[in-house]
Amino acid sequence: MKHWTLGWMLVVMAGMMAGCPASDIDTGTDAGNDAGVDAGIDGGADGGLDGGSDAGLDAGIDGGLDDGTCTLDADCLASELCHPTAKVCVRTCMSSMDCPDTAKTCDVLSPSDSRKVCQCSTDVLCNADEGTSDRVCSIPDAVCIPRCTADEACGEGQRCDTASGHCKVRGDTGAACTGEGQSNCDYGTHFCNSNVCTPLWEPGCPNYTNFPNKDMLGTTGPILYAARRVSVSTDTVLCGTATPKLVKVAFSAYSSVPFPMTKGDLNGFFRVLVAGTVREGTQDVRGADYTVTGDNRERAELIVSLCTEATATTLSTAYYFTGGNFLCFQANF
């Protein structure tokens, strides 16, 4: 082999040996740098994105604290405010186009506060996004709020109606009320009497003692809260000659379901005789003696026409609605 050929080969081999460490260093650097960069991006970016996105998403869903409640506007998103009385975050708006389907009405907070917010109309719509029944449409404020489960969740002077999840004005014995019927008094146990919530009358007449179907009574059906004698007259055409004295008594009732407009559509109204015998009650009510009042047809007056002997000076009668209370009345004349 010639000397120049051997020299050339030694140079090439030296170059190759010199290049090997350079290749190893590049690979190590790429691997280390790539791993470091990836870890930095994943750890920093993912942590930042996850933390920021999750926080933003939670805030967007909740609109403030975990259950949407708040004490200050700062607890809510920039597009929201803390409702001054309901203490929940509500979206501000210029028109209904700015509002979600759960609260589609855009209106002022109150006659004295011109700021506009999205307002709800039903409990069902308040839960449309979540598919639950955890929220209700506040009756006084028309905004979606968490449903109450105990009196402690309600404001001063209010009680939790656990059946509906709404906080309502206290309506037990002695609470103030206005108007007649139920007013704001507890349904099925009280009625508004001279501006005070008063317990319903306890039945103590023989009609009730002898009544065999007490399991038909309750506190959820239409409630009889008052009775009064209307008139006493002699009517042999209606009553006959054996019991010619006609006694008219008016029974007042309230209901959570609108009363029908006509007597013919009224169901579940019964009369109980002294012996405990039950009769269909609407047959005692003449067409013109049935009237319905209230914005939601929540009150009704039923004037019953009863016949008794000419010498009678008292009449004991009683009526009830299915699922409601039993009301005794003794007419003296």
Q: Tell me the number of helical segments per DSSP (H or I, 4 or more residues long).
A: 4
* Class derived from helix and strand content: alpha+beta
What is the residue-averaged pLDDT? 84
- Proportion of residues in β-strands: 25-35%
Low-confidence residue ranges: 1-65
Question: What is the rounded Rg?
Answer: 39 Å
The largest sheet, given as strand count, sense and whether it forms a barrel, is: 4 strands, antiparallel
- Work out the helicity level: 10-25%
**Overall 3D form:** elongated
Order of helices and strands: HEEEEHEEEEEEHEHEEEEEEE
Please tally the β strands and state the result: 18
The separation of the N and C termini measures 150 Å
Strand order, sheet with most strands: 11-12-16-15
Explain how this protein is built:
The structure is a single chain. The protein is α+β, with helices and mostly antiparallel strands. It is built from four helices and 18 strands. It has helices at 3-62, 123-126, 206-209, 236-239; strands at residues 80-82, 89-91, 105-110, 113-119, 135-137, 144-146, 158-161, 166-169, 190-193, 196-199, 223-234, 245-254, 269-272, 278-280, 285-293, 299-308, 314-321, 326-332. A four-stranded antiparallel beta sheet has the order 11-12-16-15. Strands 14-13-17-18 form a four-stranded antiparallel beta sheet, with no helix packed on it. Strands 1-2 form a two-stranded antiparallel ribbon. The longest helix is centred in the first third of the chain and has 60 residues, at 3-62. The chain starts with a helix and ends with a strand.
